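for the writeup, i need someone to sanity check this before i put it in the appendix. the sequnce is what the collaborator sent (i think, or maybe the updated version? ugh). structure was predicted straight from it, no edits. if anything looks off just tell me and ill rerun, i have time this weekend
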Amino acid sequence: MKRYDGFYFSYSVIPELSANSIAVVKQCSSLSRHAKVLLFGIKSPGYQKHDLKAFYGIDDDFEMVLLPKEVLKFGYLPYAVIALLYYFRYRPSFIYTRDIYLSRIFCWARLDNYYEIHQLDHNQDAFDKRFKRMFITLAANRFLKKVVCISNALKQDCERFGVHSKKLAVLHSASDMIREDALINKPHIGDRPKVIYTGSTQKGKGIEMIGALAKLHPEYDFIVIGGKKEDLGHFFSNNLTHLPWTSPSEVKAHLSRADICLLPNTVQKYKFHSPLKLFDYMALGKAIVASNIVGVNEIIVDQHNGMLVTPGDISGFGAAIRTLLNDTELKFRVEKNALDMARNHTWDKRALSILKLVR
C-alpha cells in the first residue's frame, strides 16, 4: 500500500487561473520535493487530462485526488467523509487544510491537523458570525496544532480575537519565478516604458487607477494582464492594452517585459492581503509601485524594495512611476532589494517551513 507523509486539503478548482488554485498547486509541487504529499481539490468543470506542469509552470509531479464539483452541492460533509476514509486508509503523518469546516471535522475525529487562515473578518454577516464561533472553539482544540496566518497583521488580529500566540504561525505567500539574471538582462526601456499589472480586474483591484494613469501619462504604455476586458470599460485609451488570462507558466514572460509593476489596490472586500503577484514581481527583480495596505506594507518598504502610495492617490502613483523611471540609481536599488527579499519567499522555502511546523 502507498505511504504518504501528508494530506493537503483545499476547495481549489484544478486547473484554474485563480490565485487560490495557483497557490495551492505550487505549494504542493514544492512540498513534493521534500515529502510524499497527496493534494485533495475540486475537478474543473469539463476537466480533461491537462499537462498541469506546463499549465502551472511547475517542475514536480505530485499526486492529487480531484473530486467532482457536484460534491459541493451537498455542503462540506461528503468531502469530509471522503477525507476521513482516505485518512484511515493511508494514515499520513500530517493533515494540512485551508478549510475551517474540514479542520473542525478532523478535530472531532481526534486527528492532529494544521489550518491555514486567510481572513478573520468576512463580508457576509451570517457567515462571519458562524465562522468566528467555529474558529475560536477550533483554536482552543488540542488537535488543531497550528493556525497558519498569511500576514503578521492577521496573526495580531487573531491574538486580539483570543487565540494564543503559541498556536499561531505566519507564512506569507511566495513565488517560484526567481530570475537570478533579472538585474543583468534588463529589458530596454527605450522611448516607451512599460507599466504592467497582472491579476484580477474586479472592483477594488485599482483598475480605474490604471485607466486614469494611462490617460494622464500618454508617454508610458500600460498593460493589464488578466481579468475581463469589459471591466476596463471606459478606462481604455490608446496606451492601455488588455491581454486575456494566460496560464501561470506564460505570465513570467509577460512580466519580464515590464519596467514598472503595479499593485494599485483601493477598497478591498477583505482586509488581509499577501498577493501572489507581489512576490512574482519581486522574484523577477521589478520596480514595484504599490498601495500602502495591510499585508503589502509588511513586505514593501518605501524606497527600499518598492514604492508605497496612499490607496487611490492617482497623482501619487504617477509621481512614483516617474521618479523610478527618471532615477536609475533608485530604480536599480529597489529592484535589487526586491529580488533579494524574493529569495526568502519562494514556494520551496515556504514548503520547508510547513514541514518544520508539522514535524
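Residues 7 and 38 are 5 Å apart (CA to CA). The first strand starts at residue 6 and ends at 14.
thx in advance!!
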